[in-house]
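Can anyone check this?
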Amino acid sequence: MLLRKNAMMDTIQWRKWFLLFIITLCRTLDSINALKCYCNSETCPNNTCETDGYCYASTSLENGVQKFTFHCIDRVLLIPPEHPFRCSTPKTRNESVAIECCKSDMCNKGLRLELQPLPPEPTGTATAWQVIPWVMGLMVLGVCAAISFWWAKRTRNVMKRGSRPLFQGEDSLCETRHHPLMGTATIRDMIELTTSGSGSGLPLLVQRSIARQIQLADIIGKGRFGEVWRGRWRGENVAVKIFSSREECSWFREAEIYQTVMLRHENILGFIAADNKDNGTWTQLWLITDYHENGSLFDFLTARTIDSATLVKMALSVATGLAHLHMDIVGTKGKPAIAHRDLKSKNILVKSNLTCVIGDLGLAVRHHVASDSVDVPSTNRVGTKRYMAPEVLDESMDTRQFDPYKRSDVYSFGLVLWEMARRCGGLPDEYQPPYYDCVPPDPSLDDMRRVVCTEQRRPVVPNRWHSDPILLAISKVMKECWYQNPAARLTALRIKKTIANVGTPDYIKL
């Protein structure tokens, strides 16, 4: 009996050692397969990072001082995989940014990229032989410009004549039809034809040259990332969001989110292209989107009041856009669920028909269903403190799960509803931001934490709303959006369906 017990103990001990050996072997293989790169970021232990993509090295000028950056780029960030534009240096003169990627252990440590120097200024007096080539070149250029102008005018006349039948007796087969990709095509035509509506934005080859074709007209906004301009491209207005080179991560992240497959929606800001442009001193990072002359919802509500029908239309359009963001579309070209993380009236734009679109996706997170993980941007930016949910303010939210991010968006949407409802009705209130009567104009995290988490206060609902069935119904929805308990809040889809029923006789009777 004792011998049998000793044999069993030996067998168990042997199995433990064998399992420990297998685990150690797997970890060793994983460590061997991972690409090790040099990293000078504070977040990298021992100045080393590991990745399944490329080692990254870049240099740029900041306040006249050359700065070097070394890091890793994961495979999921390589867009497109065969020639990722994050690894490409813009091919312009007087470049202030140089980028290079490589794929071997610590290969980026020895890379010392050099910026292209400014061309030397000419010295001395030009001789006749030096001037003659310039004069000849200008003459040739003038002749070419005259020929181009004549050809463009002739082509325009031919196209006008070609829009009618060549012969009056011919049928429709003899008519000249304009192809949508000709000069008369709109931006929306080009996007829908080249992407079949499944993606977002123009083809990458068009995007990489669009910045040189846009004429900036006037500035329409400023933020912590940079500036927003109204520009003209192909005879249409576009909005150009210009990031500084220091905000490269924010620019790349927002462009990446906008190009998510199946993201394009009538209530999501239309993305056109992402490009970079060298202005001779530093590199600008451009994000080109649709232009809406009414501006942001914040600007619109500050200047104008709305009636009940417009309130329902605006609220429903924002809820529809948020529901589309939060929804995942399953399929070979499916769309992952996305949470905004910075929903507020300044990040919502008003279209000409008074419906709204959601913009500024720089802080958005995506849900990977296969691994049940959350893709969080690597940026130091945080959301707007005034619109932060209680669980975000007191840092009790589980950032490893995706549902808490969606519930945080719903809380912010409830505050936006309150902003819109205040400007509605026969005796509308003047515009005020949420919690205007509780915190300073630029509140700190401690101010918001005290009001929202400790005192559990919410924006005041005016008494006049109780006598208006539309405002009463909207107030019920907003209260269900800003519950202290995140699990008790409505989903974006339920909000969309509820608001769609507001104003109908059956809903008012409930």
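Reply from J.R.: I decoded it. DSSP finds 13 helices and 15 strands in the chain.
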